[in-house]
Amino acid sequence: MPLQCESSSIDDYLSETEDVDVSHLTIIEKARELRSGAANETEFVQKAYAFVRDHISHSWDIQSQRITRRASEVLYFKEGICYAKSNLLCALLRSQGVPAGFCYQRLTVGDTPDTGLCLHALNAVYLSEHDRWIRLDARGNKAGVQAEFSLGEEKLAFPIREAYGEKDFLTIYKAPNAKTLHVLKHHDNCMTMYLHGLPSEL
């Protein structure tokens, strides 16, 4: 099944929100820095993706209690869960005029079904040089997780295991999911939120 855009207007995938704070000075500066060393738009997208994936820590991996939400906040603290990291990648891309959106998967919290299910966030980006959308997962690589930038077959962080109740949602949303933002706003301990507070449905 192909990806489907929530909105038919490309401008919706360039807009600013409270959490995708495209016009924040630090976002603009970092995006310009990444763009300056890129030969073209596609290379810029690849560099921005690698920066968020490799240089912004996933909160669970570093066992941090801090919760970040706004893109500029994620950039400042250099950490966040997938919801936060997807906000940052989206903001960096949009600040340079590259349309980007949000995609979701329903995955097990841990490695087995008994750990429960949760929403996982990733991004989709429109590459004008290739006239197509591709999905990118900047969650952060570790043992057993190897997501990559790819113009061919998707190389996302997690395979979908339907037998576990996991699901891949193929809609490209113009804004972060309201439920994911709600949990980031209403928890004060990231480890507790991650284990017990993540939504399981869109």
From TrEMBL:
**Pfam families per record:** Transglut_core
Q: Transglutaminase-like domain: which residues?
A: 74-140
> Which PANTHER family does the protein's record reference?
BLR5614 PROTEIN-RELATED, CONSERVED INTEGRAL MEMBRANE PROTEIN
Q: What is this protein called?
A: Transglutaminase-like domain-containing protein
The opening ranks of the lineage are:
Bacteria, Bacillati, Bacillota, Bacilli, Bacillales
